Amino acid sequence: MNFTKFLNMLRIKKSISIDLGTANILIYDKQKRKVVLNEPSVVALDKKTGKVIAVGKDARQMLGKTPDSILAIKPLKEGVIADLDVTRQMLNEFIGKIYGASLFKPEVMICVPLEVSSVERKALFDAVSGAKKVYIIEEGRAAIIGSGIDISKPNGNMVVDIGGGSTDIAILSLNEVIASKSIKIAGNTFDDDIVKYIKNKYSLLIGDRAAERVKKTLGTAIKKDNPETMEVKGLNLLIGSPDSITISENEIYEAIENSLYKIVNATKDVLEKCPPELASDILDNGIVMTGGGSLIHNFTDLLEKETKVKVFLSDNPLDSVVLGGGLAFDNTKLLHTLQMKEN
């Protein structure tokens, strides 16, 4: 490589958006204009040395199956960092996987739940200490931007973003959050609900991954006249050996109904805080749903029925947060409203 080319490489500006999710980590490269990484938020560590053995998909395969010498953990809980050192190692591994040993110090946009404490924000800044600049944007703001909605205008828009660890609900106008609420009820809660339901009703113990498969296949927010069914395998607690059952959509509805309505009621709470001058905008524009939890069958129908406001699913429900974080780099006025740290 000649010296001129080397200097040109050093001048390249790199901007990445990170959706630091409880279930998955997504990274969007602004220059490439695409999501360059989507991996589970899981790390496998050597217990003795603390060294990272695997991250992402490889580490997720080890959950519940590791020997005593290996620890497979999720360093993020309810959308925030539970273990800073492991989160930092995980991010370094992911970024190294994409870009290799790079001389670039990127600008980083971290997408976080609406209600994170100052201590949690500091942990987020510290987790990407190798970046040139670090911005923090609320997931609700990022999700609605990533859904293709222009929030820079004096017009009210509303989003319900159901992630893995938290649900963020917000009304936005002129780049700002006008009213919001964040609750610790989301996709992982649905998984826990399913595990408990099957254990209590059938004395069958299933793992988190099995519960997630059931949720994705049978999860519904409205009871069905002709419900679909699937086979579920686990450990029969009565006989102490592997067993299987057949479970239906309506049973999964029963399992997650309470959590569904907690999200519905939180949405109603935010609507009650809506300033009168924006209420008509929300009626006209509707509510956009994003995040993996929004993919529960008929959830948009349930929310629309309960709020009396039209509800629609984002075109990119799984990627809307990280896409919005990337698009935020192009909004100068928005950047000025975000908390930022320069290294």
Automatic annotation (TrEMBL):
ATP binds at T22, A23, N24, G164, G165, S166, E212, R213, V214, K215, G292, G293, S294, L295. It comes from the Bacteria. GO terms for biological process: cell morphogenesis; regulation of cell shape. GO terms for cellular component: cytoplasm. Its main location: cytoplasm. GO terms for molecular function: ATP binding. NCBIfam families: mreB, PRK13927.1. Forms membrane-associated dynamic filaments that are essential for cell shape determination. Acts by regulating cell wall synthesis and cell elongation, and thus cell shape. A feedback loop between cell geometry and MreB localization may maintain elongated cell shape by targeting cell wall growth to regions of negative cell wall curvature. Forms polymers. This is Cell shape-determining protein MreB.
